[in-house]
Amino acid sequence: MHGGPADAIDLKTLGRVIVVKLRHHGDVLLASPVFTVLKNHVPRAQIDALVYADTQEMLSQHPAISRVHTIDRKWKSSGMLSRALSEGSLYRALRSRRYDLLVHLSDQVRGAWLARMLGCRYAVAPERAAGHAAGCGFWKHSFTHRYPLVARRHAVELNLDALRRIGIQPSEAERRLVLVPGAEAEARVAELLASEGIPDGGFIHLHPASRWRFKCWTVEGTAALIDRLHADGERVVLTSAPDRSELDLVAAIRGRCERAPANLAGKLSLKMVAALAGRAKLFIGVDSAPMHIATAMGTPVVALFGPSGETEWRPWGVAHRTVASSVHPCRPCGQDGCGGGKVSECLTSIAPDAVLEAAHSLLRP
């Protein structure tokens, strides 16, 4: 029998648990296995989540989650009184749940305050680097357990390290991502595909955009890839967020294609993106939330990486290929483009042939 930490918590004492993940969409989705593992190991407990309001679709309808509490990013700019009222309402809602365990999956100081104010018997969070703002002493004494942030470890495993630290060892089967599109999203996507004459499993989902443009491939490369896929007899469906810059990117790509692909850019909610990805034979995109969404839906993925690292952020738990430059020893640098110039040469130098070869390896094994 494998041992565990000497200060492992008594799972039988847990009635309610709050998991805090105040990050972007992809980060929240990569935390979804934490809820599965907790529910499997403490089936009698109610497991709640606290996330930013715009990311709650990543966790809504997760079968292991009882409630999703949210923080609106707009509170910061809503005025002192309005923010105080919103924060007070959230605090009262959380306090009323009487949590036994708080699992904080980032290093924001809000987690330390919550651990203290909610009076949880146990609280676990990552170690903070020496000299971190808000003071290591305050952070250290806010939690009963802390786990190390290990470099070059996948984000899913880092999240699960919080549970390993308190004595819960996840199985391989429990580590898959969970995202439930819901009946409404599924029905709407089925209608859209039918209107384009595209059958389920008969298309490639291509999402070229990211909220950070320095993580995007080139218009020319994407258009050339689409033309090559069309020449192979494949159907391609393009998506993006409704953001103006992303819509412009998709328009520029379609404008350079010999035959424009089906275009659902700006027309889909996050749940609908999941429903679409789940019906695709392959997903192609950059390191972004939609790439992780496709992974959660079990769809094979070709992911292009530039300044971000595939070791930490690669597609999780599905057949995949990562495409990255082999001639830029500086990557992954984590910078917003070379020299902060918003253009990443390690991405713009990727040839369409490399992406097409990766796609072929998954489409025609």
Helix tally equals: 14
Kindly report how far apart the N and C termini lie: 39 Å
Query: Could you report the average pLDDT, rounded to the nearest whole number?
Result: 95
Label the structural class.
alpha/beta
Query: Helix amount, in percent?
Result: 25-40%
Q: Could you describe the largest sheet, including whether it forms a barrel? A: 6 strands, parallel
What is the radius of gyration? 22 Å
Gross CATH architecture of the largest domain: 3-Layer(aba) Sandwich
Spatial strand sequence of the major β-sheet: 3-2-1-4-5-6
Please provide a written account of the structure.
- Strands 3-2-1-4-5-6 form a 6-stranded parallel β-sheet, with helices on both faces.
- The chain has 2 domains: 11-175, Glycogen Phosphorylase B (Rossmann fold, 3-Layer(aba) Sandwich); 183-363, Rossmann fold (3-Layer(aba) Sandwich), CATH 3.40.50.
- It is α/β, with parallel strands linked by helices and 365 residues long.
- The model has no long low-confidence stretch (mean pLDDT 95).
- It is built from 14 helices and 12 strands.
- It is globular, with a radius of gyration of 22 Å.
- Helix 9 links the parallel strand 8 (236-238) and strand 9.
